[in-house]
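subagent[fold] <- orchestrator: predict structure for attached chain, return tokens only, no commentary.
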Amino acid sequence: MASRDTTLFSGPAGLTLDGEAVRAAALALDGAERSQVQIPLLSEDNPGMNMDDAYAIQGAWVRMKRDAGDPVVGWKIGLTSKAMQYALSIDIPDSGVLLKSMVFDNGSDIPPKRFIQPRIEAEIAFVMKAPLVGGQLSAKDILDATDCIVPALEILDTRITRIDPRSGKLRTVFDTIADNAANAGIVMGEPIYDFSNLDLRWVGAIVSRDEGVEETGLGAGVLNDPLLSVSWLADRLASYGDRIEAGQIVLSGSFIRPVEAPPGSYISADFGPLGMVSCRFA
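subagent[fold] -> orchestrator:
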């Protein structure tokens, strides 16, 4: 089931941008993706921009994709680590939307010019078998609604420049949220159905580029437990009258720093007993 526009546009009143400005920003993001040329910071062009505005722009961009035949298949959660929150002066996670076109098989060759400046993160994905509505969710509630967990690589990309060429200012969290929380793709490993006894805090990955180890991390880096990340998303959606649907994928957040993936890179993540996930950038 597709999410309602109330969620994609962030719900309660609090916007400072009018509908025309929101649509213009979404069109600019779409143009950047098509042309492979990043746009300047939206936060510089819209000085009063706030988080509701950012989610409204994200929602307008997603609706364009959905109307063009690219359905929503899930959600991604970002800014779950303290290091990334400190870097952007924010104390809560953010979220984006997964589209069908973003999903790649394990071992995929990523076509040239598919992304602008791709980076890779290692995450645990949840695939839901039942809807999940926020509000005092327990770990058991989340596990009971989960069909399987999947070791995954998230492909980050930025349609907005990281540093504004005009002012030299760094991208803000509002820019990141508007840019679909920097989400652009997901590479899925093999599903794990026997997971109820796994302590996801201790699920880890060794991430390599061209056979050289770049990053390592544990699930505890995601709000101390990836289950808490899923709970946060369910609560955020519930506050706008929405929910995580059965069949949707939820990327719970990275437990490594992003790894650059320039053309020709081979990226692999060893999740130990959960298997390997890899992709190659042409």
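orchestrator: received. Logging for downstream: The chain has eight helices and 13 strands. Confidence is low (pLDDT under 50) at residues 1-12.
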